Each structure stands twice: as C-alpha cells, then as structure tokens.
Amino acid sequence: MNIHPVVLCGGSGTRLWPMSRGGFPKQYLKLTGEQSLVQQTVSRLSGIHDIARPIVVTNNEQRFFVAEQLRQIDANPSAIVLEPVGRNTAPAIAAAALLALNTSPDALLLVLPSDHVILQDAIFVKIAEAAAQVAKDNYLVTFGITPTEPHIGYGYIRSGAPLADGVQAYTVDAFVEKPDATTAGRFVKEGGYYWNSGMFMLKASTYLEELRRFEPEIARQAELSLKHATRDNDFIRLEAEAFAACPNISVDYAVMERTERAAVITVADLGWNDIGSWTALAEIAKRDEQGNAILGDVLTESVSNSYIRAEHRMVAAIGLDDIVIVETADAVLVAHRDKAQDVKKIVERLNASGRHESVTHRRVERPWGSYEGIDQGERFQVKRIIVNPGAQLSLQMHHHRAEHWIVVKGTARVTNGDQEIMLTENQSTYIPLGITHRLMNPGKIPLELIEVQSGAYLGEDDIVRFEDTYGRAARS
Q1: What fold, for 363-467?
Q2: What does the mean pLDDT of the chain come to?
C-alpha cells in the first residue's frame, strides 16, 4: 500500500487580500507560523507510514514559488505538474492518478489542498492512515470534519451506514451545498452531518475507473495531456490543447456526488480551517486579554476583538471593536470582521481598473531572487534587486528603457554588450537602451543592488530574452 500525496496549488488570491494576491496566493504566505501553508501541508506528511514523495499540481506562473518553498524545507517532490489552464480539481487529480499508476498499480492518492490549516498533525496522520485502509477496498474516501458551529461557508456531507468497526467511516448518504443559517443549525443539532474538507484518499485506479464512467472526456483528455507532456527543468508541462479540452469541473461534481463508492471518514479536534477570510484566520490566531490578535509593530488603545497585522510599518489603532486591519507595503485593508469576506469585491474593482495591487506585491519574487519597487515617476522608476548566490537573470534587452545599476552588497558579474565586468559594493554601471545584458551573482552571499530605470515605457513586458536558466526565453 503506497500513498502518493497530491498537493493542489491553485488559487486566485482574492480572499486574503492584500497579503494574498493573484500572483502570490495564500498557500505561499506564512500566516500561522514559520512555514508557509504549502510548506506545512508537505511537512505534516512525514509521519504517515508508507508515504511516497508528493506530486504537486500548480501552474506556470507559480512554478518557481512551489519549487523554492519546497527546497527551503528539503522536500523533494516526485513531480511538479504544470496546468496550462485552470480546469478545477477533477482533471488535476486525473493527471496525478495517471502519474502515480506509473509507479504502482495499487497506488493510493492522498489529495490535499495546499492552503488549509491543520493544527493537530498527529491526528491528521492517524486519520490519513485509517482512510488508506478504507480506500484500498475501492472506496473513494472524503474527509469529513465534525462541525463545531453551524457554519454557512462550508458544504456538508451526510453520513450513511458504517463501513467497519473501530473506524469512523461511513458510506456517503448525500453531499449538501452550503446551507443557510437555519439549515446549518439543524445539521449540527441532528448530527450525522460533517463539513466537506476537500481532502480525499482514493485508489488511483478506482478514481480513473469512475471518472471514465461519469466524465469520460476528462479522463481521455487528461491522459492525452500527460502522454504529450514535456519536461522543463524540474517540471512536467501538460500538453495545452488536450488539457484545455477537459471540462472545468470539481472532483465532487465529476465523481464523488455520482459514484456508489463514496465514503466519508470523520474526524474531530483536527484544528482544520480552510482560511476562507481574514475573520476565519482571526478565529484561530492567539489573542490577548482584550480578544485581539496582534501581529507585527502594532499599538492599540481601547481596541477589542480585532485582528491587526502590520507587515512593514507601525500601525496604531484607537477605539475599535471587531475590526480587521492588514497592512502591507503598498496597500492597507480596514474592514469590520463581519464584512471581511467582501474583500473580494475590492479585488474585483482593482482588476476592473487595471491596477496591479490585485496581482503583485511591491516586492515580487523571481526564481533568481526578488525585486521591489522603491520609487517611480514620469519616465523613471527605482527598484531594489536581490540576486541569490549562484543565480543569474536572463540574457536580455529592452526596447524602451535604459538602466543604471549600483551595487550595495555582494559582487555582481555583469554582461554589458560585448563586455563582461565585475562590480563590488559602491560600484555601478550603465546599460544603454537596446543593449544585450545580464546580471549574475558569483558570490556566496546575496547580491543587492539599486536599479534606476529611465525611458518612455517601463513595463515588465519590455523584456526580450535570448537565454534563460529558468526556461523563460520562449515563455513568460
């Protein structure tokens, strides 16, 4: 019995804005500890018996975030699968199932969202191993969370007949959509209803068998997309045309709500939360005597029952109750706790107006390091650039801007047209418009420099790449 974790790393970054953004969703944030949510998801797998290396499913834009965060915790995935377009969970799990079957005909899939919080890792390990025993008998097992309140933000599962002695596993009697408050209250009072966590234990062969039965086009196109996939560095790129032809549908709708093999294994005291809003995060955060969760440089006076998070500056709050305040380098959210879920409406307005704050932070992560905007005006902008030891940017040129580079820490090897020069602290160089250039850090410490761009157009899409370590010469 070989359990293959499948970690799903998608997300649009709307529910926890301004920290989570379209280009950097919540699974990559350190919201509840020293590790990001995806790092926590992978780390808790180590206690499970007979666990294989994880299969991670993400997209082209997030591929380096995943790879770097797994490298930081010394996790070595068996595959990082890149979806060319988002097609929900049913096609993603199908591709992972086909990969796992290449390793073992009896492979079990432990399907996990990458952005959930689980506070009790030992209980998770125990329930995962129990679910594997149920799934090996060809049941498709979903994890049901014993509700602690009549929550209207989750779907529910109604349990049926028990499956085995000593295990809280049942057939699934029904999947129930998110209820209203009255119905949710009735569910909790009656018992036998569980929150649908979105976690699954499935035999890969059984899942594909049921998928071919109910959604044959997903199975066919997922198989074609993997058959014609290409390998790019550490990534498996699913073939775009075939994968795009998959119906956009979740595993619940595609299989779980239609199969006779659905089972639910129930668990209490897991400390599970899908962090669907700032209010949900506030509920699991450590609070002071006034009921406040305070993170960062925050001063309060007569404030209660509030969540206040400062990432870059001091935040002062006076005379507030039931408020969420989240400060980042380029945006601040202030909301009543009861309205925090409406932050998605702000994101929609940002998107509609074409503003970048819905997509990127002021500091933007790249596979070679990061850059951060410091100042900008008409025909100029200033950035702080950090290049990791041994890393290099692409060999590139710009049609509309020139650049000045000033090294403030470390050593830079610079290709500037036909010249290659070494720069150390307090030295600089000028890259004229239209000249091919490259920046590399040959040293053992991070290279930090200030870049001053000037020209008629300063957008990030004014880059022509000729060579690239990270496979971006032909792709963005």
Answers
A1: Jelly Rolls (2.60.120)
A2: 94
